[in-house]
Amino acid sequence: MTTPVTIPQDLWDEDDKTGSIVVWLYKDGAEVKEGDLIAEVLVEKVTLELLAPASGTLRIKVQPEVVVNKGDEVAVIE
Amino acid sequence: MSRILTMSRAGREALDWEMERRPEIFCLGEDVFKFGGIFGTMDGFGAKYGPERVISTPISETGFIGMAAGAAMAGMHPVVDLAYIDFIGVCYNVLLNCASKTHYMSGGSVKVPMTLLIGTGGGYNNAAQHSQCLHATVAHIPGAKVVYPSNAYDAKGMLHTALRDENFVIFLTHKGTAGVGWMGTPIKTTLSEVPDEPYTVPFGKVKVYREGRDVTITGLGMSVHESLKAAEELEKEGISAEVVDLRSLVPLDREGIIASVAKTGRLIVTDEDYLSYGVSGEVITTVTERDPGLFRRPPVRVTTPDIPIPFSRPMEQAILPLAGRIAEAARKLMA
Q1: Which of B163, B213, B219, B272 would staple B227 via disulfide (CB 3.0–4.6 Å)?
Q2: Cβ separation of B3 and A26 shorter than 8 Å?
Q3: What is the value of pTM for the model shown?
Q4: Which residues on chain B are in Cβ contact (under 8 Å) with A22?
Q5: What burial class does residue B309 get, using C-beta atoms within 10 Å of its C-beta: 0-12 exposed, 13-18 middle, 19+ buried?
C-alpha cells in the first residue's frame, strides 16, 4: 500500500503563501514510522515540521529549495 | 536508529535528554522561554520545563551571565544562550575573572559547571557588529574550555560532554552551520546521521573529514565546509587535500595537527576570525615549535583580514575565507 505525503492544509495559516522543504531528515528509501518528523518546511523564515502519515519506506519526490504549496505531494510511503 | 539531523536539532536533543534527568540543569537567555534560543537549542523547552527552568532574561548579558556563574558555584548547571559572540564584551569580566578562575583560585573546592552557548560568524550581510567570530578572544582565557563542532553528530556528542563537564565550557556554533530555517537551506556537510541514544564526543581531538596526501587544510566551524568545497575542486585538478576540523580550541589537539602536516608537508590554516593574534597563528606555531622541517613549503593563512566586516554582500564575500580563496592558496603551494 502506498500513502502520499502531502503538505497539510493547516501547516500554515495564509493560503496565498508558499513554502519550501529545508531538509529531509531521512534518506530516500529509509524506513520511517508513522508520526516521525521527516522534513522541515520553511515558510517566511518560520520552520514547520512535516510528519510521516504512515509507516514504511520513504520515497522522496520533491527536493529541498523547490517551492511547495499546501496539498502538494512531496513524497510517498510504500 | 539514526536520522539525518541539523546541528540545531542534534544539540537540542542532547540538552533535552540531560534536562529530563538532571534537575540542576536550567536554561537562561534572551527570549529562551517563548522563542527557544536563536538556534532552537531550547525549542519547546518553555512549555515542557516551565518558567523556573527556562528563564527569559532582560537584555543584560552582564546580569544574567553573572547570575549563571553564581548559580553554577552554588551547585546548579546553567546553560546560557548568548546568541551573538559580538556582545561578549559586556560580560567579559564574568568569563575572564569569575567563571574561568574560581575553580583554580579556590584550590579546587568550588566548581563552575556552566555551559555557555554562543553563535559566531558572518556570511549573511549582518554587518560589522553581528558577523564576528572572536573565538580566539575566548580561547585565550586560561580556565575555560572552548569547543566548536561543525556537524550534527559532533554537536550532539560534544554538548553531552559539555553538560557533564564539572567546569566552565564555552560552546560555539557558527550561525551558518546550525541549520536553522532563517539562515537558508542547511549546508549538506553539516548534516549527519545522529543516533537516538545519548553519546559523548571527547574534547581535544581533531576530526579528519577527508584524507589527503598533498596539503593539510585545517578549519573550524564554517571554514571546515568551505575547505571541503575547496578540496573537491582541488581533487579534479589532481591535488589531494586533507581537511582537518580542529573542533576543540581548548584543549587543542596539537598532536593531531602535527600528524597531518608530517604526512603532507604543506599547511593551509583557514579561519573566519581575524588574521592577527589568533587561532591561525597558534596552529602554525604548534607545528613550527615541534619541527619546522615538517614544512616542505611555508605555511599559509586564509582568514578574514584585520578589518571590520563589511555589510555589502560583494565586499563581505570578498573578505571571507571561502572555498575559492582556499583552493587558490593550495594551487600556489603546489606550484
Answers
A1: B219
A2: yes
A3: 0.93
A4: 179, 181, 185-186
A5: buried
Q: What is the DSSP letter of B310?
A: P
Question: What would the grid cell of residue B299 be?
Answer: 605555511
Domains B2-195 and B207-334 share a fold: yes
CA angle B42, B48, B54 (to 5 degrees): 50
Map out the domains of chain B as residue ranges: 2-195, 207-334
Cell of B183: 539562515
* CB neighbourhood size of B165 (10 A): 17
Note the pLDDT tens digit of each residue in A55-73.
999 999 999 888 999 999 9
This model of the complex carries an ipTM of 0.74
Residue B293, Cα to own-chain centre: how many angstroms? 31
The rounded distance, in Å, linking the Cα atoms of B31 and B54 is 10
What grid cell was written down for B331?
A: 594551487
Q: How close is the nearest chain A Cα to the Cα of B180, in Å?
A: 8
- pLDDT tens digits for B306-317? 999 999 999 999
In whole angstroms, give the CA distance from residue B306 to residue B273.
9
User: Could you tell me the domains of chain A?
Assistant: 3-77 (2.40.50.100)
Q: Does the domain made of B2-195 have the CATH classification 3.30.70.20?
A: no
Question: Would the CB atoms of B181 and A25 count as touching at under 8 Å?
Answer: no
B5·A26 Cβ contact <8 A: no
Task: Judge whether residue B182 has pLDDT over 80.
Answer: no
Fold for domain B207-334? Answer: Rossmann fold (3.40.50)
Contacts of B8 in chain A (CB under 8 A): none
pLDDT band at residue B1 under the 50/70/90 scheme: low
Q: Say yes or no to pLDDT of A17 above 90.
A: no
